[in-house]
Amino acid sequence: MGLSSKHLLGIKDLTKEDIQLILFTATQFKEVLQRPVKKVPSLRDVTIVNLFFENSTRTRFSFELAEKRVSADVINFAASNSSAAKGETLLDTVNNILSMKVDMVVMRHSASGAPYFLSQHIDAAIVNAGDGINEHPTQALLDAYSMQEKTGRLEGLKVAIIGDIMHSRVALSNIYLLKKMHAEVMVAGPPTLIPKYIKEAFDINVTYDIKEALNWCDVANVLRIQLERQNQPLFSSLREYNIAYGIKRSLLDSLKKEIVIMHPGPINRGVELDSDVADGPYSIILNQVENGVAVRMAVLYLLSGQS
Questions:
Q1: Domains in the chain with CATH codes
Q2: Per-residue pLDDT reduced to its tens digit, 235-290
Q3: With contact defined as beta carbons under 8 Å apart, do 242 and 269 qualify?
């Protein structure tokens, strides 16, 4: 058994069977992470370069830890400390790295489509760790794994994705994955942060009322407001956003049911989530972080061609 693609460029390119295989394999690796010795020799002869052209903390650390847990040789590359800062092209940078016999590239880039471009020009397997506002496939996979672990299912699960949908690569990858796994999806947030085409393009529910979304869903995946991607004001202020769309403990307590709260991080506390929600009993945010390592171990293992 293996994935249908040599690369992980986006959830859009995966089949339902690919997703199921990744989640199943992640379960095996999560068992490894519970052992006293949290390491296996699965990728002992594989060299992986982490190629990050965009700032990252959680994703880069998660990938690096996953790579070390499967015993891969790891090279970390930061664009700000490299010849890329002097004007070297992406392709020249990568070809220079590959000449050192690298087997796999984990890449984050601010330009949408950068991993796709690279996959057309090099032989190494590529894992997309986030490209512009396009996709973030491993985040969607770890979100799905966390939902399935918590609720026992994905099919028929009602998931509300709340916040800055327009600028979020996490939202797009989650929508692709949840639809492939036959979950129900709703997006919620201010009208200025939800693309007009999204309802028809993806056959999902849309609401601008946060309480309607929370009353409807089983799981609320709350997204960060990405001010760095907004070239003009799209709402009046962060304070007013919190009043209208922030999730507070009193709001959750007013519901007639319990729901699961998720967030891909980093959290803007007091904006999209209040601290007593992020740290409260509804939240599985820290579980997502733990599961991210297991899911990325699974992705690297499956793309390496190991059996």
A1: 11-135+289-303 (3.40.50.1370), 137-285 (3.40.50.1370)
A2: 668 888 889 999 999 999 999 899 999 999 899 999 999 999 999 999 999 999 99
A3: no
